Amino acid sequence: MDDHLIQVLSNIGMITFIALSAYVLLLTGEISFGQQAFFAISAYASGIATAMWGWSFWLGLLWGAGVAGFAAFLLAWPTLRMRGLYFAIGTLAFAEMVRLIFEVFHYQIEIDGEMVGPNGSEGFRGIRYIFENNISEFQYMMIIYALLASVLVFLFAIERTRVGAIFRMLGEDELLAEMQGVNRTYYKVMATVIAGLIAGIGGALFAHMNTYVEPKIFNVMLGVHSLAYGLIGGLGTALGPLIGVSLDIGLLESTRMFTGYRMVVFGGLVAILLIFRPRGLLDEEAVHAIRSAWRRKTPSTRQQSEIDAPD
To answer: Which of 213, 233, 247, 264 yields a CA-CA distance of 20 to 30 A from 270?
Structure first.
Protein backbone atom coordinates (compact mmCIF):
# COMPACT_ATOMS: atom_id res chain seq x y z
CA MET A 1 0.00 0.00 0.00
CA ASP A 2 1.60 3.29 -1.09
CA ASP A 3 2.04 6.31 1.18
CA HIS A 4 -0.55 8.45 -0.63
CA LEU A 5 -3.30 5.85 -0.20
CA ILE A 6 -2.40 5.40 3.47
CA GLN A 7 -2.60 9.19 3.95
CA VAL A 8 -6.02 9.39 2.25
CA LEU A 9 -7.44 6.46 4.22
CA SER A 10 -6.07 7.87 7.48
CA ASN A 11 -7.67 11.25 6.78
CA ILE A 12 -10.99 9.58 6.01
CA GLY A 13 -10.83 7.70 9.30
CA MET A 14 -9.92 10.73 11.42
CA ILE A 15 -12.50 13.08 9.90
CA THR A 16 -15.18 10.41 10.27
CA PHE A 17 -14.94 10.87 14.05
CA ILE A 18 -16.02 14.50 13.87
CA ALA A 19 -18.71 13.58 11.33
CA LEU A 20 -20.05 10.94 13.72
CA SER A 21 -20.13 13.47 16.54
CA ALA A 22 -22.33 15.76 14.45
CA TYR A 23 -24.44 12.72 13.47
CA VAL A 24 -25.23 11.92 17.12
CA LEU A 25 -26.66 15.40 17.62
CA LEU A 26 -28.54 15.24 14.31
CA LEU A 27 -30.33 12.15 15.60
CA THR A 28 -31.73 14.25 18.45
CA GLY A 29 -32.85 16.94 16.02
CA GLU A 30 -30.06 19.42 16.76
CA ILE A 31 -27.78 20.97 14.16
CA SER A 32 -24.30 21.76 15.45
CA PHE A 33 -21.75 23.89 13.62
CA GLY A 34 -19.34 23.63 16.53
CA GLN A 35 -18.05 20.05 16.75
CA GLN A 36 -14.64 21.27 15.59
CA ALA A 37 -14.25 22.85 19.03
CA PHE A 38 -14.07 19.44 20.74
CA PHE A 39 -11.82 18.19 17.95
CA ALA A 40 -9.45 21.11 18.70
CA ILE A 41 -9.64 20.81 22.49
CA SER A 42 -8.63 17.17 22.35
CA ALA A 43 -5.90 17.81 19.78
CA TYR A 44 -4.25 20.35 22.09
CA ALA A 45 -4.90 18.43 25.33
CA SER A 46 -3.58 15.10 24.03
CA GLY A 47 -0.60 16.81 22.37
CA ILE A 48 0.33 18.52 25.64
CA ALA A 49 0.02 15.20 27.49
CA THR A 50 2.39 13.26 25.22
CA ALA A 51 4.77 15.95 23.98
CA MET A 52 5.15 17.95 27.19
CA TRP A 53 4.15 15.75 30.11
CA GLY A 54 5.68 12.53 28.77
CA TRP A 55 2.48 10.48 28.86
CA SER A 56 1.91 7.47 26.61
CA PHE A 57 -0.17 7.83 23.47
CA TRP A 58 -3.14 5.93 24.89
CA LEU A 59 -3.21 7.94 28.09
CA GLY A 60 -2.95 11.11 26.04
CA LEU A 61 -5.82 10.02 23.82
CA LEU A 62 -8.02 9.21 26.83
CA TRP A 63 -7.09 12.54 28.43
CA GLY A 64 -7.85 14.49 25.26
CA ALA A 65 -11.19 12.75 24.68
CA GLY A 66 -12.08 13.19 28.37
CA VAL A 67 -11.34 16.92 28.32
CA ALA A 68 -13.40 17.27 25.12
CA GLY A 69 -16.27 15.35 26.71
CA PHE A 70 -16.14 17.57 29.80
CA ALA A 71 -16.17 20.68 27.60
CA ALA A 72 -19.25 19.25 25.84
CA PHE A 73 -20.90 18.75 29.22
CA LEU A 74 -20.22 22.39 30.12
CA LEU A 75 -21.64 23.51 26.76
CA ALA A 76 -24.77 21.39 27.12
CA TRP A 77 -26.22 23.21 30.12
CA PRO A 78 -26.33 26.81 28.80
CA THR A 79 -27.62 25.63 25.42
CA LEU A 80 -30.37 23.32 26.71
CA ARG A 81 -33.08 25.90 26.19
CA MET A 82 -31.85 26.68 22.70
CA ARG A 83 -33.47 24.84 19.82
CA GLY A 84 -33.12 24.78 16.07
CA LEU A 85 -31.30 27.77 14.63
CA TYR A 86 -30.50 29.19 18.06
CA PHE A 87 -28.72 26.00 19.09
CA ALA A 88 -26.76 25.95 15.82
CA ILE A 89 -25.65 29.57 16.32
CA GLY A 90 -24.78 28.86 19.96
CA THR A 91 -22.50 25.95 19.02
CA LEU A 92 -20.88 28.03 16.28
CA ALA A 93 -20.20 30.86 18.74
CA PHE A 94 -18.68 28.38 21.19
CA ALA A 95 -16.40 26.92 18.51
CA GLU A 96 -15.19 30.35 17.46
CA MET A 97 -14.57 31.26 21.10
CA VAL A 98 -12.43 28.12 21.52
CA ARG A 99 -10.51 28.90 18.33
CA LEU A 100 -9.80 32.46 19.48
CA ILE A 101 -8.67 31.22 22.90
CA PHE A 102 -6.11 28.98 21.18
CA GLU A 103 -4.97 32.00 19.15
CA VAL A 104 -3.70 33.57 22.38
CA PHE A 105 -2.93 30.42 24.37
CA HIS A 106 0.77 30.14 25.25
CA TYR A 107 2.14 27.27 27.29
CA GLN A 108 5.66 26.09 26.53
CA ILE A 109 8.45 24.24 28.29
CA GLU A 110 12.00 23.49 27.24
CA ILE A 111 12.72 19.90 26.21
CA ASP A 112 16.20 18.95 24.97
CA GLY A 113 17.02 22.61 24.35
CA GLU A 114 13.86 23.20 22.30
CA MET A 115 10.71 25.05 23.34
CA VAL A 116 7.70 22.76 22.98
CA GLY A 117 4.03 23.59 23.43
CA PRO A 118 1.19 25.76 22.16
CA ASN A 119 2.42 29.15 20.97
CA GLY A 120 -0.71 31.11 20.16
CA SER A 121 -1.43 31.69 16.47
CA GLU A 122 1.87 30.05 15.54
CA GLY A 123 0.43 26.72 16.59
CA PHE A 124 1.67 23.72 18.50
CA ARG A 125 4.64 21.88 17.02
CA GLY A 126 6.60 18.85 18.14
CA ILE A 127 3.82 16.32 18.81
CA ARG A 128 6.16 13.54 17.72
CA TYR A 129 5.17 10.59 19.90
CA ILE A 130 4.25 8.36 16.94
CA PHE A 131 7.54 8.92 15.13
CA GLU A 132 9.69 8.77 18.26
CA ASN A 133 8.21 5.36 19.06
CA ASN A 134 8.70 3.97 15.55
CA ILE A 135 5.01 3.56 14.74
CA SER A 136 4.72 3.41 10.95
CA GLU A 137 2.03 5.23 8.97
CA PHE A 138 0.37 1.92 8.15
CA GLN A 139 0.34 0.87 11.81
CA TYR A 140 -1.13 4.23 12.78
CA MET A 141 -3.80 3.86 10.11
CA MET A 142 -4.73 0.50 11.63
CA ILE A 143 -4.99 2.16 15.06
CA ILE A 144 -7.32 4.79 13.57
CA TYR A 145 -9.61 2.21 12.03
CA ALA A 146 -9.59 -0.03 15.10
CA LEU A 147 -10.82 2.93 17.17
CA LEU A 148 -13.30 3.90 14.45
CA ALA A 149 -14.68 0.36 14.35
CA SER A 150 -15.05 0.43 18.14
CA VAL A 151 -17.00 3.71 18.00
CA LEU A 152 -19.24 2.38 15.21
CA VAL A 153 -19.98 -0.78 17.20
CA PHE A 154 -20.78 1.41 20.21
CA LEU A 155 -23.21 3.52 18.16
CA PHE A 156 -24.81 0.45 16.57
CA ALA A 157 -25.33 -0.97 20.07
CA ILE A 158 -26.84 2.29 21.35
CA GLU A 159 -29.27 2.47 18.44
CA ARG A 160 -30.65 -0.95 19.39
CA THR A 161 -31.38 0.20 22.94
CA ARG A 162 -33.97 2.46 24.53
CA VAL A 163 -31.45 5.32 24.49
CA GLY A 164 -31.15 5.18 20.70
CA ALA A 165 -34.94 5.07 20.33
CA ILE A 166 -35.26 8.12 22.57
CA PHE A 167 -32.61 10.02 20.59
CA ARG A 168 -34.61 9.45 17.40
CA MET A 169 -37.87 10.25 19.20
CA LEU A 170 -36.44 13.60 20.29
CA GLY A 171 -35.33 14.22 16.73
CA GLU A 172 -38.81 13.55 15.40
CA ASP A 173 -40.88 15.46 17.97
CA GLU A 174 -39.49 16.77 21.25
CA LEU A 175 -42.90 17.78 22.61
CA LEU A 176 -44.37 14.34 21.98
CA ALA A 177 -41.33 12.70 23.58
CA GLU A 178 -41.72 14.87 26.71
CA MET A 179 -45.43 14.04 26.87
CA GLN A 180 -44.45 10.36 27.00
CA GLY A 181 -42.24 10.97 30.02
CA VAL A 182 -38.86 11.41 28.34
CA ASN A 183 -36.46 13.58 30.32
CA ARG A 184 -35.32 15.85 27.49
CA THR A 185 -32.59 17.51 29.54
CA TYR A 186 -30.94 14.25 30.55
CA TYR A 187 -30.85 12.77 27.05
CA LYS A 188 -29.78 16.00 25.36
CA VAL A 189 -26.84 16.29 27.76
CA MET A 190 -26.00 12.63 27.17
CA ALA A 191 -26.02 13.06 23.39
CA THR A 192 -23.86 16.20 23.60
CA VAL A 193 -21.27 14.50 25.83
CA ILE A 194 -21.13 11.39 23.61
CA ALA A 195 -20.67 13.63 20.58
CA GLY A 196 -17.87 15.53 22.35
CA LEU A 197 -16.07 12.32 23.32
CA ILE A 198 -16.22 10.97 19.76
CA ALA A 199 -14.92 14.24 18.28
CA GLY A 200 -12.21 14.18 20.97
CA ILE A 201 -10.92 10.79 19.83
CA GLY A 202 -10.59 12.13 16.31
CA GLY A 203 -8.83 15.28 17.48
CA ALA A 204 -6.20 13.31 19.41
CA LEU A 205 -5.55 11.07 16.41
CA PHE A 206 -5.30 14.10 14.13
CA ALA A 207 -2.75 15.89 16.30
CA HIS A 208 -0.45 12.90 16.58
CA MET A 209 -0.56 12.03 12.91
CA ASN A 210 0.20 15.56 11.73
CA THR A 211 2.60 16.41 14.63
CA TYR A 212 1.41 20.02 14.34
CA VAL A 213 -1.85 21.85 14.97
CA GLU A 214 -2.82 25.51 14.79
CA PRO A 215 -6.08 27.35 15.53
CA LYS A 216 -6.98 28.13 11.92
CA ILE A 217 -7.27 24.41 11.14
CA PHE A 218 -10.36 24.24 13.36
CA ASN A 219 -12.39 26.84 11.51
CA VAL A 220 -16.07 27.08 10.64
CA MET A 221 -15.69 25.07 7.44
CA LEU A 222 -14.56 22.00 9.38
CA GLY A 223 -17.78 22.19 11.38
CA VAL A 224 -19.90 22.73 8.26
CA HIS A 225 -18.29 19.76 6.52
CA SER A 226 -18.73 17.50 9.55
CA LEU A 227 -22.44 18.31 9.52
CA ALA A 228 -22.74 17.87 5.75
CA TYR A 229 -21.13 14.41 5.82
CA GLY A 230 -24.01 13.02 7.86
CA LEU A 231 -26.58 14.70 5.64
CA ILE A 232 -24.92 13.21 2.55
CA GLY A 233 -24.35 9.70 3.83
CA GLY A 234 -27.65 9.44 5.65
CA LEU A 235 -29.11 9.52 9.14
CA GLY A 236 -30.48 5.98 9.08
CA THR A 237 -27.25 4.41 10.29
CA ALA A 238 -23.89 5.37 11.77
CA LEU A 239 -22.30 4.25 8.49
CA GLY A 240 -23.83 7.31 6.83
CA PRO A 241 -21.16 9.81 7.98
CA LEU A 242 -18.42 7.39 6.87
CA ILE A 243 -19.97 7.30 3.39
CA GLY A 244 -20.16 11.10 3.32
CA VAL A 245 -16.51 11.49 4.32
CA SER A 246 -15.43 8.86 1.79
CA LEU A 247 -17.25 10.66 -1.03
CA ASP A 248 -15.66 14.01 -0.18
CA ILE A 249 -12.12 13.13 0.88
CA GLY A 250 -11.80 9.79 -0.89
CA LEU A 251 -13.28 10.88 -4.22
CA LEU A 252 -13.47 14.65 -4.58
CA GLU A 253 -10.32 15.71 -2.71
CA SER A 254 -8.03 12.84 -3.64
CA THR A 255 -8.62 12.62 -7.40
CA ARG A 256 -7.24 14.98 -10.01
CA MET A 257 -10.56 15.00 -11.84
CA PHE A 258 -12.05 17.50 -9.39
CA THR A 259 -8.94 19.61 -8.76
CA GLY A 260 -10.04 23.21 -8.29
CA TYR A 261 -13.73 22.29 -8.36
CA ARG A 262 -14.03 20.21 -5.21
CA MET A 263 -16.04 22.73 -3.18
CA VAL A 264 -18.34 23.43 -6.14
CA VAL A 265 -19.07 19.74 -6.64
CA PHE A 266 -19.41 19.10 -2.91
CA GLY A 267 -21.81 22.01 -2.45
CA GLY A 268 -23.86 20.91 -5.42
CA LEU A 269 -24.03 17.35 -4.08
CA VAL A 270 -25.28 18.58 -0.71
CA ALA A 271 -27.90 20.81 -2.35
CA ILE A 272 -29.21 18.01 -4.59
CA LEU A 273 -29.43 15.53 -1.74
CA LEU A 274 -31.22 18.02 0.52
CA ILE A 275 -33.86 18.40 -2.20
CA PHE A 276 -34.35 14.77 -3.18
CA ARG A 277 -33.14 12.88 -0.09
CA PRO A 278 -33.24 15.30 2.85
CA ARG A 279 -32.05 12.63 5.31
CA GLY A 280 -29.22 11.38 3.09
CA LEU A 281 -28.44 8.36 0.95
CA LEU A 282 -28.87 5.84 3.76
CA ASP A 283 -31.92 7.32 5.45
CA GLU A 284 -34.26 5.34 7.70
CA GLU A 285 -36.36 4.05 4.80
CA ALA A 286 -33.31 2.87 2.87
CA VAL A 287 -31.87 1.11 5.93
CA HIS A 288 -35.22 -0.56 6.63
CA ALA A 289 -35.49 -1.73 3.01
CA ILE A 290 -31.94 -3.14 3.09
CA ARG A 291 -32.60 -4.99 6.35
CA SER A 292 -35.89 -6.39 5.07
CA ALA A 293 -34.24 -7.62 1.88
CA TRP A 294 -31.43 -9.21 3.92
CA ARG A 295 -33.92 -11.01 6.17
CA ARG A 296 -35.81 -12.37 3.17
CA LYS A 297 -32.57 -13.55 1.59
CA THR A 298 -31.09 -15.07 4.75
CA PRO A 299 -33.20 -17.79 6.42
CA SER A 300 -33.56 -17.66 10.17
CA THR A 301 -31.79 -20.14 12.44
CA ARG A 302 -34.99 -22.09 12.93
CA GLN A 303 -35.76 -22.24 9.22
CA GLN A 304 -32.19 -23.30 8.48
CA SER A 305 -32.38 -26.10 11.06
CA GLU A 306 -35.62 -27.34 9.51
CA ILE A 307 -34.01 -27.32 6.07
CA ASP A 308 -30.96 -29.21 7.33
CA ALA A 309 -32.93 -31.73 9.39
CA PRO A 310 -33.24 -35.20 7.85
CA ASP A 311 -36.69 -36.46 6.79
So the answer is: 213
